Amino acid sequence: MTPEQLRTVLAEAAADTARTAHPVDGAVLRRADGRTPGHWHSNLALRTAARLDGADAHDVAEQFAEALRRHPDIAAVTVSGPGFLGIEVTAASLLAAVCAIIAEQIDDADPGADAVPAADAHTSADDGDPAPEVPDGPARALDDDPVHLIRRSHAHGRRLLRNAAAAGVPGGCPRTAAKGDVRVGEARPDSAEIVGAETLDTAERSLLVHVTEAADTLARTRDPAALTATLADLAHAYLDWAASHTLVPTLDADITAVHAARAVLVDAVTTVLARGLRLLGVRAPERM
């Protein structure tokens, strides 16, 4: 489920519960910061209650929550404070959403396209490394330049995908196209067809939410500062994930559904980073 889809679901809940068919001024949907339950936070119930004479915001939020819980792509809804909604979406719907993001890229440009002259490209022996080295944390001094951080994160993700493909890790999206040295997924956004969704842990699901939020921002703005901040935030989140998770299993371990799901996650991260870099007029490198 993308942010835009969730906004639609929230609007439908407001229309059904509070009988308000018009957009509610000041309603905000924000990605959760991890300190409170859910993937997304919304003040829609508070804003709706303000338009209804004598309505209690907490009661309105509980009604919204009840309506939202009936949606098949919503796993849980909590009400906190005076009427804030905390919304957790299912892992399958998150993977379906990022598969759709990957599929959209096929008709655009190769997410790993690197037009840097050969003399500028690094040709290190990363392709044969089953466990690519992750930098010592995302806040290294060399990443004070956010565009460098974004480009390095993209190259790191593409390297992981090359190694995963060489190790036989399948992608979790239906695969129907090949571009460059990494297969790019063309997905039908059908949650039932997504492999390994329920194997993803809390951090991985949060990163999926982060990907959908970044893609939503890229679709809504062309402001360079906003784009750079969004992409750098995603790059930091990706490197934090990569420091504690593996895409390619060790030699004595089996390839499982979680590796397939992680391949989709990394594919989606690099897709969004590449798309954002193109909007900034910067090349997205395969290697750095």
Describe this structure in words.
The protein is an alpha+beta fold. The chain has 2 domains: 3-89, 2-Layer Sandwich (Gyrase A, domain 2), CATH 3.30.1360; 93-107 and 142-180 and 187-280, Isoleucyl-tRNA Synthetase, Domain 1 (Orthogonal Bundle). The protein has 8 helices and 6 strands; from the N terminus they run H-E-E-H-H-E-E-H-H-E-E-H-H-H. Helix 5 (146-167) packs antiparallel against helix 8 (257-279) and helix 7 (224-242) packs antiparallel against helix 8. The two termini are 33 Å apart.
Keywords:
about 290 residues, Isoleucyl-tRNA Synthetase, Domain 1, alpha+beta, Gyrase A, domain 2, about 10% strand, 6 strands, two-stranded antiparallel sheet, about 45% helix
User: Average pLDDT across residues?
Assistant: 82
H/E series, N to C?
HEEHHEEHHEEHHH
Q: At the third CATH level, what is the topology name of the largest domain?
A: Isoleucyl-tRNA Synthetase, Domain 1
Label the structural class.
alpha+beta
What helical percentage do the residues reach?
40-55%
C-alpha end-to-end distance: 33 Å
Corresponding CATH superfamily of the largest domain = Isoleucyl-tRNA Synthetase, Domain 1
Number of strands: 6
Runs in which pLDDT lies below 50 for 5 or more consecutive residues are 110-135, 176-192
Order of strands across the biggest sheet? 1-2-4-3
Largest sheet: 4 strands, antiparallel
Quaternary organisation: single chain
- Count, helices: 8
InterPro entries: Arg-tRNA-synth_N, Arg-tRNA-synth_N_sf, DALR_anticod-bd, tRNAsynth_Ia_anticodon-bd
Keywords: ATP-binding, Ligase, Nucleotide-binding
Enzyme class: ligase
Domain Arginyl tRNA synthetase N-terminal: 4-89
